Amino acid sequence: MSINSSVTAFAPASVGNVGVGFDVLGHALDGIGDTVTLRRDDRPGIRLQGVFGRIRELPADPASNTALRPLVALCQDFSITEGVAVTIEKGIPLGSGMGGSAASAVAAIVAANALWQLGLDPERQLIYAAMGETVASGAGHLDNLAPSLFGGLVLCEAGDPPAITRLPVPADVCCVLVHPELRVDTRDARAMLASSVPLSTHVQHAQHLAGFVAGCLRSDMDQIGRCLRDVVIEPQRRALIPGFAAVQAAATNAGALGASISGSGPSMFAWCRQELAAEVAEAMVDAFAENDVATEHWVSAINAPGARLLTSAAGAVSV
Amino acid sequence: MSINSSVTAFAPASVGNVGVGFDVLGHALDGIGDTVTLRRDDRPGIRLQGVFGRIRELPADPASNTALRPLVALCQDFSITEGVAVTIEKGIPLGSGMGGSAASAVAAIVAANALWQLGLDPERQLIYAAMGETVASGAGHLDNLAPSLFGGLVLCEAGDPPAITRLPVPADVCCVLVHPELRVDTRDARAMLASSVPLSTHVQHAQHLAGFVAGCLRSDMDQIGRCLRDVVIEPQRRALIPGFAAVQAAATNAGALGASISGSGPSMFAWCRQELAAEVAEAMVDAFAENDVATEHWVSAINAPGARLLTSAAGAVSV
Fold it and tell me: Which residue, among A286, A248, A278, A281, has the nearest Cα to A265 in the 3D structure?
């Protein structure tokens, strides 16, 4: 193998929905993510070589693997026939609501774009990564993919191509993410949602979402705090999470601007001022513990960086 | 009567909903509005003295008059027993979707606040004005009241007190408003709405609304253009407006960023660059004409001023 025979890319975990923005908003998390390495291989085709990290096994069939499926599509579109061995290091717990399937897909596409020097712009990378997300959730939802690729808090407008807008957030606001040791299947969490929203709830949600977006852009903590609430999805999914109400109340009582379900759960997140992060995290962890649920947790900037190459095809490292 | 025995206030018409923001967004219009004069009177009570302008008659019963009802509430709360004679000059056509009932209520409260030197802050004035709006639409919707009072484009969060955020818009964007000579009753237009929104439509709307708010704050014309569309309410109400599809298409073909129904209609509005305003207005007027509908139209800044005193209690003029 030559020195440029492999590429490794990292893509961060993410908080999909951010409570108030179901299928609209998402933000990256710092310090946790999936890493994908692609190695040129004499055997043709896309081959799963190994899985390590938090789990040791993933489906080898590209149709069922969020990292492999977009690579197959890419090879078809660009008539790439050479073989590639794929290694996936899962840093993100499965079924955690932390955007693990999105991160694997994004890391795979970022690595492939570098390995084959395809020069895909970020929107095209996003579209390919979305082909991986369909494996996990049945549709290419962008609210985890886009923050994992671009970093920070992003607003996703569906379309062809989708339009992604990175939103600013107040500098001293951060995210506390608490992962209870439970699994929720994204497909199940979607299937349980009612097929319609009462008009009055729809209007209430619209006010919150518009206010939340304005609050982020205007750096208005009070407005963010008033509007970081989910009246549509959370009431339908909260029963999946033992202790949900206690954890949410613990977060806001400790000074968080708001707290809700990360993605389809069971992880919960809170936004708070940085100086309160330790206190908010402890309160949430304790509330889960009182419900006999063990947890891990992270504190992250909202403006966390997006996906990046760890080793380039030329062997250089750029973190 | 002494020189400070009367006060006159003006409140502008407004575009409720702004297409994408049903019960969330609204903006003021320049050059058209209602004017209310309050005169101290020896006879106790709130009395309708005269109506002129576009119409000559309005209900004299405060329970059915959007300007009188909030005055009665104000007198009760502040134990005001002196009599007041109310004159209303209607500049806004009835049942036009241009926020006429809101403007009359706002002008009445702004005048009363000055006449009795109550020192009500704007949020309190808004709450009293909302008591008038309940006459017209069955609920105190703020998306006409708030822009009429504050001016400009506003985002309304319900609450006690409601939170109103004035949003910036790109400097060279203006509004074309075309009023077809038809009437739509606000209560009827509300009653025809389905009681729920399909989840997929709800999500699509959320993306548009979030993108529209971000586009205004980021001064991003492309994003405003992509997102100024109403997938929830417009499809249900468009049948009330003869030629709706032709008028909307005429506006966008003439270069408008978007066009939809003003409030509950039948007026239609378009947002466009100032240099295209005449062309957009002509296209919309022509399209209505081809459907045998006569129209009036206005071109207005989005950042139009809100309600103001025309003559103060001391007789001074401040426009």
Answer: A248
Phi, psi at A209, each rounded to 5° = -65, -45
Q: What is the mean pLDDT of residues B155-181?
A: 93
- Which residues of B are less than 8 Å from A198 in CB distance? 195-197
Torsion, Cα of B107, B113, B115, B119 (10° steps): -150
Distance between B173 CA and the closest CA of chain A, angstroms: 19
Q: Are B313 and B117 in contact (CB under 8 A)?
A: yes
B16 vs A: CB within 8 A:
no
Biggest CA–CA distance in chain A, Å, is 62
CA distance B225 to chain A (A): 12
CB distance A24 to B203 below 8 Å: yes
Radius of gyration, CA atoms only, chain B: 19
Contact between A135 and A63 (Cβ < 8 Å): yes
Helix-strand-coil split of chain A, %, nearest 5: 40, 30, 35
- Residue recorded with tokens 């009653």: B191
ipTM score assigned to the predicted complex: 0.92
Name the amino acid, one letter, at B178: V
Measured between beta carbons, the chain A residues lying within 8 angstroms of B167 are 214
For B47, phi and psi rounded to 5 degrees?
A: -125, 130
Interchain contact, B207 vs A158, CB within 8 Å = yes
The C-alpha angle with vertex B218 and arms to B216 and B221, in degrees rounded to 5, equals: 60
Q: Do A196 and B196 touch (CB under 8 A)?
A: yes
- pLDDT tens for residues B86-116? 999 999 998 899 999 999 999 999 999 999 9
Determine the pLDDT at residue A140: 57
pLDDT number for residue B254? 98
Identify the bridge partners of residue A52 per DSSP, sorted by sequence position: A89
Q: Is B156 on the interface with A (CB under 8 A)?
A: yes
Tens-place pLDDT, residues A64-110 = 899 999 999 999 999 999 999 999 999 999 889 999 999 999 999 99
Angle, in degrees to the nearest 10, between helices A122-137 and A100-115:
140
Contacts of residue A232 in chain B, CB cutoff 8 Å? 202
Domains and CATH numbers, chain A: 6-166+304-312 (3.30.230.10), 173-301 (3.30.70.890)
Is it the case that residue B314 has pLDDT exceeding 90? Answer: no
Q: Tell me the count of A-B CB pairs closer than 8 A.
A: 118
User: Is this prediction's pTM over 0.95?
Assistant: no
* Chain A contact for B123 (CB, 8 A cutoff): no
- Yes or no: say if B112 and B118 are a contact pair by the CB < 8 Å rule: yes
Q: Which of B80-89, B113-122, B146-155, B308-317 has the lowest mean pLDDT?
A: B308-317
